[in-house]
Amino acid sequence: MLITQEDFSIELLSEEKTAILTGTMRLSSPTAYDEFFSEIVKMMSEGGSITVDISQLEFLNSSGLTSLGRVFIQAKNLNMTGKIIANKDVPWHQRSIVSIAKLWPKALVVMK
Q: Could you give the CA distance from residue 24 to residue 60 in angstroms, rounded to a whole number?
């Protein structure tokens, strides 16, 4: 499944249980992200392990970080393992993703 907006896209690979976020996400509030991130949560409800790849996500505002943090908390509550793939060359990935990944202790953060 591919969700495409003007500035960003979210590709959901169901068989691999992978969500790939690309572009620039500047939505107005954490709840504005719900319609997009809810698809990731649906994929998580199937159990197992999931990968969230943000390595091509250039920008995510504070509302998006809050909403992504909520997704990570849900993964933790479902006792899921997973992987967060980030980009070491994107400064906010190094600062923010490492911090909010603490909300999901069973996730491995991979900086590529």
A: 6
